[in-house]
Amino acid sequence: MKVKFRQLPMRIKLTVSFSGPMIVIFVLLLSVSYRIIETQYEEQIIYSADQSFEQAVNFLQNHLQNMNYILELVGSDRKLQDMLSDGSYRIRQEAGDQWRDYWRINDIMTSLELSNKMYQCGIYVPDRLIYAENRYHFFPESDLKKKDYYEELCDRMNQGLIYFTGLERSGPEIVGVKKQRVAMLKKVYGDELGGGETCIARVSIAVDELERIVVNSDITQKGLSFLTNERGEILAVSNQENLETLSENGSLPGYGSNASWQDLRIGDASYLYRQQKLDQAEWMLVSLIPRQDFYRQTYLMGMTLILFSILIVLSIFLISWMLGKYYTKRLVALNTRMKQVQNGQLSLEVDVEESDEIGELFRSFGYMTKELRKLILEQYRLGKNVKTAELRALQAQINPHFLYNTLDLINWEAMDYNAPEIMEIARNLAQFYRISLNKGRQIVRVEEELNHVRAYVRIENYHFDNAIHLEIDTEEGVEELACINIILQPFVENAIMYSIAKAPDRETCNIHIRAEREGEDLVFRITDDGFGMTREQTERIFEENSHDVSHGYGAKNVNFRIKLCYGEEYGVSYESEIGKGTTVTVRIPALTPEEAEKKLQ
């Protein structure tokens, strides 16, 4: 075995030596961790269930205390006690007298409900009274006598105790559908129930409120919580479907002694259940948690851990394999980097921490690529300077002094011959070329560039009988910023040449120029109402072999100059739609003339 291991390649040896012990240790730690997490998870569920159960018990107890307090208020109300002691309300025959009694008692009950809107107050009255069937604040005494538990009720009432009804429907007739409610009963007047003039008051609460509390006590999907009384009636349940299913499979725990999370088997399923009696009422809250929920969650957790374990083991193996490959194939990596440099990828970063011979080769190679990159950047700067020099040489080919003197001579001759139009043309042309040539400098103020456009349009308007309408809109302070010269006039020229000049039947040509700052940039937008272009046409404008522009510097030339002077993030872009016109956006950095001159040096 040892001989075979020694004959294996070094990469396999390193992989097995590194990954084997780590995988064994990891599996052992994972097994122990799973058992600990499983135990803690079960404890956490029990703790959460306890918290929800206790909270539900507290809410129910609070409702019972409130209902008992309201009954105490009913029993101590002076007006009501005066009417009850008089007893005449029980024997009145006239409808008017009965309705007056109704409104007096109704006002008392309503006033109690205003401060406790969740509860409904009422009293039981003789059946012969015309408002006995109200079933909101008044209930017929015969309702109690019809109950199976009437004798038990009488015993408790005679002892001065309270009593709870089962589920019953009550509410104002105007609502149409009465809600199910559970009522607390208490004798508020008289000696012995059934033997004389007595009065029983009631305070009820909607079953919806009880169900809301019970639902919140159930924290599992397949679990069940329900509220029952000593007669075995289910007053509220968290999930009716689960209740029916469990009832079919076996008997549910009922009213009995308190129990805290004991095992219970219903059919084929195992449950943990807790039940607790409520003070002041023969009610019991019961909560069941299926063991299956524990198993389901721990099963999902176990499968997740197994999946992650497989991924981690594979990762350990892969890392081990890659480390072996690293230590045996470093020369191959160096050769790969050399080929990348040969293919023109000079931005490689070589970080080497080793100090052996291969590490020295890596460092020497990194130094060589950096120096090569510096030489190429230096060559680029030299080429940029050459392009700038060539551009300035082109601009300087015209003798500005000769041109200005000639135009000045034309202007004076026009004045002598009283030709104001020729004089105006000569003046605009002189201004146009003065800004264009700019004494060989590239940088002009935005105000001068805009005047350059105005002069050009005034000249062109002599050709087109003032059909060209130019509107210039500038943000405050923009005119004092700097730009390279002749970056707007070519687009104005294109707007004229490809609209009114191309279609003589057009009456006007409208051009709008907007200059504004956007953050650290200066943006010009030249908008016209010409024929517009398709997307394919706008994309061909900046292609190398495109010759669509035949006047001035052209869009491609302006875009090239901007990128050459300011960088690739600046330049010209087009937005155009057939029949609606074109918008050209020129973006340059927002610089003062001094800053712009320094940038171009």
From TrEMBL:
The keyword Signal does not apply. Residues 487-592 form the Histidine kinase domain. Its main location: membrane. GO terms for molecular function: ATP binding; phosphorelay sensor kinase activity. Residues 325-377 form the HAMP domain. Gene3D superfamilies: 6.10.340.10, Histidine kinase-like ATPase, C-terminal domain, PAS domain. It is a multi-pass membrane protein. Keywords: ATP-binding, Cell membrane, Kinase, Membrane, Nucleotide-binding, Phosphoprotein, Transferase, Transmembrane, Transmembrane helix, Two-component regulatory system. Its EC number is 2.7.13.3. One of its GO terms (cellular component) is plasma membrane. It is found in: Cell membrane. It catalyses: ATP + protein L-histidine = ADP + protein N-phospho-L-histidine. The chain crosses the membrane at residues 12-34, 299-323. It comes from the Bacteria. Pfam families: HAMP, HATPase_c, His_kinase. This is histidine kinase.
